[in-house]
Design goal:
about 10% helix, single chain, about 50% strand
Length: about 180
């Protein structure tokens, strides 16, 4: 049985990473960043690129033979060095989903190109991560707390390549707008 979650990618382009930070001058600043790259990769269609799709799929099937993983990148260069991240959230709107499931967000371990990345040549993922449980309701926004991850990325800019979004268990498929 395939359980999909689909997040509308059109909204992801306008989805914002909202965060506050304080700089060395102790001034709190709030910034909204749109994604600069977003796509998904599919194990079953392992040499196909989905960078031009309107949605982002995150899924697993019962046998684990089909995995869809979302990928998203935000340009963090506007955050000054030595900033302290006060909060950071990523909100994606779920277009459809069959079952409630945990969805994790990890750092990717290498750089990737939105229009050429495929499952067979995908980046790996590394800690830290952020997890939420998504439900089955359509047009539902879900928010991940990325404070720790964005702080880590700001402190280690040479090792920041974006995020990979993956279903935790073997019974999923989600589609995000």
């Amino acid at each position: 049985m395939r359980k999909n979650y689909v997040f509308l990618k059109q909204l992801i382009v306008f989805a914002v990473l909202i965060f506050g930070f304080s700089s060395a001058k102790s001034q709190e600043i709030t910034v909204e960043l749109p994604s600069t790259k977003d796509t998904y990769i599919r194990q079953h269609d392992n040499n196909r690129n989905f960078g031009d799709q309107a949605t982002m799929s995150v899924s697993l099937n019962d046998g684990g033979s089909t995995r869809d993983r979302g990928m998203i990148y935000f340009d963090l260069s506007s955050i000054p060095e030595n900033s302290t991240i006060m909060s950071a959230e990523l909100t994606l709107t779920q277009q459809s989903g069959s079952y409630a499931e945990n969805i994790d967000i990890y750092f990717t371990d290498i750089d990737w190109d939105e229009m050429s990345v495929v499952y067979n040549d995908r980046p790996g993922y590394i800690e830290p991560s952020s997890r939420i449980n998504v439900g089955t309701s359509s047009n539902t926004p879900y928010t991940w707390d990325l404070k720790e991850m964005i702080q880590h990325a700001v402190n280690n800019t040479s090792n920041y390549y974006g995020f990979i979004i993956r279903a935790l268990l073997i019974i999923i498929p989600l589609i995000f707008n």
